[in-house]
């Protein structure tokens, strides 16, 4: 059995297959996911698991060099934005329109769906290297 903190086999597999500049997305329960993008559905009920719980878990294994957030998070969900900045204090953030974020899901290895029920709680994680 795995000893690291990411024990979900699908998430662990996707992270292991990622290379430099590859993307993984985590988001709220309402984010539309293209049929061509793998969806790892963790949602159980309203708020379970939370966006931040899943993000914190993924960051245990994934080296991230940049994050992408919807421009709208600044006004529509400043609490989640603050938590993201606290979790990734030294990681550059690029803000993009939510419509662009949805389109960018076509370029992600996978989308991890959480039970989060707050607006614009979505992130694109760009993989870095550990050397």
Folded structure, characterized:
The chain is of the alpha/beta class. It has a single domain (7-125), classed as RbsD-like fold (3-Layer(aba) Sandwich). It contains five helices and six strands. It has a six-stranded mixed sheet with strand order 2-5-1-6-3-4. One of its GO terms (biological process) is D-ribose catabolic process. Keywords: Carbohydrate metabolism, Cytoplasm, Isomerase.
Please sum up the structure shown.
The protein is built from five helices and six strands; from the N terminus they run αββαβααβαββ. By secondary structure, it is of the alpha/beta class.
Could you outline the blueprint of secondary structure elements for this entry?
Elements: H1 9-17, E1 23-27, E2 38-41, H2 51-58, E3 64-70, H3 73-76, H4 78-87, E4 93-96, H5 98-104, E5 110-113, E6 123-127
Parallel strand pairs: 1-5, 2-5, 3-4
Antiparallel strand pairs: 1-6, 3-6
Q: Give the CATH level 1 class.
A: Alpha Beta
Instruction: State the secondary-structure class.
Output: alpha/beta
Q: According to CATH, what is the topology?
A: RbsD-like fold
What's the helix count? Answer: 5
Sheet with the most strands?
6 strands, mixed
**What's the count of strands?**
6
Our estimate of the beta-strand percent is 15-25%
Silhouette: globular
Q: Please list the strands of the largest sheet in the order they lie side by side.
A: 2-5-1-6-3-4
| CATH homologous group name | RbsD-like domain
Radius of gyration: 13 Å
| Unreliable residue stretches | none
The helical percent reads 25-40%
What's the CATH architecture name? 3-Layer(aba) Sandwich
Give the overall average pLDDT: 97
Order of helices and strands: HEEHEHHEHEE
Number of domains: 1
End-to-end distance: 27 Å
């Amino acid at each position: 059995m795995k000893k690291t903190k990411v024990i979900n086999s699908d998430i662990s597999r996707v992270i292991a297959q990622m290379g430099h500049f590859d993307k993984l997305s985590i988001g709220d329960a309402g984010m539309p996911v293209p049929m061509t993008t793998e969806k790892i559905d963790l949602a159980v009920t309203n708020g379970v698991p939370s966006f931040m719980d899943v993000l914190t878990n993924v960051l245990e294994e994934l080296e991230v060099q940049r994050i992408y957030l919807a421009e709208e998070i600044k006004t529509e969900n400043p609490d989640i934005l603050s938590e993201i900045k606290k979790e990734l204090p030294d990681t550059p953030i690029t803000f993009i329109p939510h419509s662009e974020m949805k389109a960018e899901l076509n370029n992600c290895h996978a989308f991890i769906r959480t039970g989060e029920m707050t607006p614009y709680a979505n992130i694109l994680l760009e993989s870095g290297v550990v050397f």
